[in-house]
Amino acid sequence: MASNETVPRVGEADSVEDWLRSLLPDKALGGSAHQVFALIASQPAKAAFAPAAELAELVQTSISSVTRMAQRLGYAGWPDLQRDLRARYLAHLSMLEVSESHRTADSPFRASLRQDADSLASLLRGVDEERIARIVALLAQSENIYVTAQGSYAAVGHAFVHNMQIAGYPARSLLDNPAGLANAVARMGPGDTLVVCSYWRLYDVAVTAATEAKANGATVVVLADNLSLALEKSADEVVLTPAESISFFPSLTGAMAVQQGIVATLAKLDDERTRTSLMAVERSWEKFNLLHRSAPRHMP
């Protein structure tokens, strides 16, 4: 049954400071750690781009104190905390503000490639293989898999659905279609999985869909660059992926890599199912004459 609770709108108790305070340990921060935390909470624009040495200098402490503060909040160090901080800070900016926040002496083209390479390296370092395995298991046993995304990230959702279907799984797209998403969520229940692709700025429709799907008994998987407090209660599994670019738009590179990795893992979970589906799809493409006549056609 659908929930009668009011879905919190984006922006309600979802600021950078609210998120930071949600990370605080039960035992209060003291001394230098408290000073560093107060600085980043009050000046997220500066902290989002400042190296640890600069923060340490501003509060007259050591770099190791900045590192220990990040560790008290559950991170390996300042770079990991800063990555999530910057993602949340940028999510509250307009496109013009995002564009103006990036400054580079390199060419835009080269800087863009370097940013994506750095993001992929960060993603690889922090990947949780056990979490990916759990998500793949959920998808494999789902009666229906729904993928929703808005804006440019609909491209990620489209590729995700397309590849899961070819691999033999019941995936359906709900992309840039709020009315269709509302209709589908109303029919969701136990056995269904909703995958929410939400990067940079969070759409209200994504929050509502996740909340109502969860209330109806469906499993909710969130693929995002930061876990909004508005989505946190509804998410059964979350994969966080860097989405920062050097321009006014978010990068699709990390998100595309994640969905490809998930599908590749799903395809290997049941080799026979995947093989059977691939052969059936190839035959169907042949019948529909989808490929140019010069394309090689090899059937087992």
UniProtKB/TrEMBL annotation:
InterPro entries: Homeodomain-like_sf, RpiR-like, RpiR-like_SIS, SIS_dom, SIS_dom_sf, WH-like_DNA-bd_sf. GO terms for molecular function: carbohydrate derivative binding; DNA binding; DNA-binding transcription factor activity. It comes from the Bacteria. Pfam families: SIS. CDD domains: SIS_RpiR. Residues 135-272 form the SIS domain. GO terms for biological process: carbohydrate derivative metabolic process. This is RpiR family transcriptional regulator. It comes from Sinomonas atrocyanea.
